[in-house]
């Protein structure tokens, strides 16, 4: 009798087990596992020595194929997997290491990783501070002018692989200003460049890190009408005795100026140079002379100085003179503060 009860209990247990197996079989047939591939999952180094930096990691992203129920495979993205490479105890140089994949969703399994190994190159880590340079590309609309642009940071910290950090001389904040007519303010991504202005590029993003990576750039723009006016050389003093001023050539002969008020431009007929001292000269001279715009006027589209050539020549004798000791003493030089344009100052008789 006892054996009969034991057999019945065994049959009941076996029936339950078979029912469970059958249930899983039915569910699997109705909802079978599927596979889906997530592309370009970033590989993250782990265990990196603080004194080292990753110069390159090839490839720096892998493709991961997951298997599992369809509802767990929907909308899979790179963020749903964590892929790491262990570089614990690895020193400077190149090494080939396997990757490890950890699914971020339950009931998923890793079917395949491509590739399974990555090549890591490590270098000593370096850090330094470099200046920020503002670079404006283009010109504002006609009659508009840029005034005192600013950058929110003057310096940034550059860190990463030594061979890259050593190349960085400064970082550039580049802003396009072509055709603008009003003040602009932008957050600009900073670009590291070498001493020649060429960008320093890293094959692996973390091989070269800027802190901060961006800067706020403000470019004030104001309305300033323009006008082209002739240049006059302001002469002071007089040539040596027996000499006079001849031709005066100025290059460029005209410059373009701007002013906030049109009234100022309307009253401006010419632009003088800084004083040119010709005291005691007995020969022609050529000098680079700065322009002297009046208050409220700025020179644009040209050099800050002009080239002034002043002909100094002997005074010519008066017609009919001779036989006596007298000679012509007239001179074309005026007193202090004389203004001369591109024409000639001729000697008197």
TrEMBL record:
UniProt biased composition (Gly residues): 320-349
PANTHER family according to UniProt: CDAA REGULATORY PROTEIN CDAR
Ranges that cross the membrane: none
Name assigned to this protein: YbbR family protein
Organism: Thermaerobacter marianensis (strain ATCC 700841 / DSM 12885 / JCM 10246 / 7p75a)
Gene3D superfamilies listed in its UniProt record: 2.170.120.30, YbbR-like domain
Upper taxonomic lineage: Bacteria, Bacillati, Bacillota, Clostridia, Eubacteriales
Residue segments, region Disordered: 317-349
């Amino acid at each position: 009798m006892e054996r009969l009860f034991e057999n019945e209990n065994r049959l009941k247990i076996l029936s339950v087990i078979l029912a469970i197996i059958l249930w899983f079989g039915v569910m699997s047939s109705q909802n079978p596992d599927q596979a889906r591939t997530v592309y370009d999952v970033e590989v993250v180094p782990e265990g990196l020595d603080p004194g080292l930096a990753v110069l390159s990691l090839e490839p720096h992203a892998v493709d991961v194929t997951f298997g599992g129920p369809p509802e767990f495979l929907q909308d899979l993205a790179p963020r749903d997997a964590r892929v790491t490479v262990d570089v614990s105890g690895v020193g400077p140089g190149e090494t080939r290491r396997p990757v490890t994949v950890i699914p971020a969703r339950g009931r998923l399994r890793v079917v395949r990783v491509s590739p399974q190994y990555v090549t890591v190159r490590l270098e000593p880590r370096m850090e330094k501070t470099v200046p920020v340079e503002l670079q404006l590309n283009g010109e504002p609309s006609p009659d508009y002018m840029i005034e005192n642009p600013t950058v929110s940071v003057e310096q940034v910290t550059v860190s990463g692989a030594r061979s890259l950090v050593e190349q960085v001389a400064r970082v550039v904040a580049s802003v396009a200003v072509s055709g603008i007519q009003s003040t602009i303010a932008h957050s600009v991504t900073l670009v590291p460049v070498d001493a020649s202005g060429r960008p320093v590029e890293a094959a692996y993003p973390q091989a070269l890190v800027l802190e901060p990576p961006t800067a706020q750039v403000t470019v004030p723009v104001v309305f300033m009408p323009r006008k082209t006016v002739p240049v006059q050389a302001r002469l002071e003093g007089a040539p040596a005795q027996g000499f006079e001023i001849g031709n005066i050539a100025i290059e460029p002969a005209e410059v373009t100026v701007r002013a906030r008020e049109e009234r100022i431009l309307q009253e401006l007929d010419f632009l003088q140079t800084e004083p040119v001292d010709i005291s005691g000269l007995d020969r022609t001279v050529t000098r680079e002379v700065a322009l002297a715009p009046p208050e409220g006027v700025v020179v644009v589209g040209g050099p800050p100085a002009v080239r002034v050539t002043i002909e100094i020549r002997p005074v010519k004798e008066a017609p009919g003179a001779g036989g006596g000791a007298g000679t012509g003493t007239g001179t074309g030089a005026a007193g202090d503060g004389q203004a001369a344009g591109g024409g000639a100052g001729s000697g008197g008789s």
